[in-house]
Write a structure and sequence with these properties.
The protein is α+β, with helices and mostly antiparallel strands. The protein has one domain. It is built from 3 helices and 5 strands, in the order ααββαβββ. α1 packs across α2. The longest helix is centred in the N-terminal third of the chain and has 20 residues. The protein is globular, with a radius of gyration of 14 Å.
Length: 109
């Protein structure tokens, strides 16, 4: 059986990075779908997430990119999270922009 998947350039680049880090094509697909769904949800609501920090600990955050909460904090001088292979979000508790590496997502509530 052959599966054909069409990806945009950013998504393809992200998939290649994830796969190089975890070396598991199946899990790369799972992570890609989870990240896409998370990004869609964060545009509409505050989402509770867990991800693994660089030190290995697990942290839980309330994340959003919803315009009504995050737009006033965008200054337009940064580098897109997609270009750095991270998910960038507004942390509602810390009132600051945060990010995590795409393969570090543990759970979305």
């Amino acid at each position: 059986m052959t599966a054909i998947v069409a990806l945009e350039n950013k998504a393809l680049k992200r998939a290649l990075v994830i796969n190089s880090r975890i070396e598991n094509p199946f899990m790369t697909g799972v992570i890609m779908e989870r990240i896409s769904e998370l990004k869609r949800r964060m545009q509409k609501e505050v989402v509770e997430i867990e991800f693994r920090k660089k030190d290995g600990s697990i942290t839980r955050r309330f994340a959003t990119t919803m315009g009504s909460l995050a737009k006033q904090h965008i200054n337009g001088r940064g580098i897109s999270g997609d270009d750095r292979n991270v998910v960038t979000f507004w942390d509602c508790e810390k009132s600051a922009w945060r990010c995590f590496q795409v393969q570090s997502l543990v759970k979305v509530y």
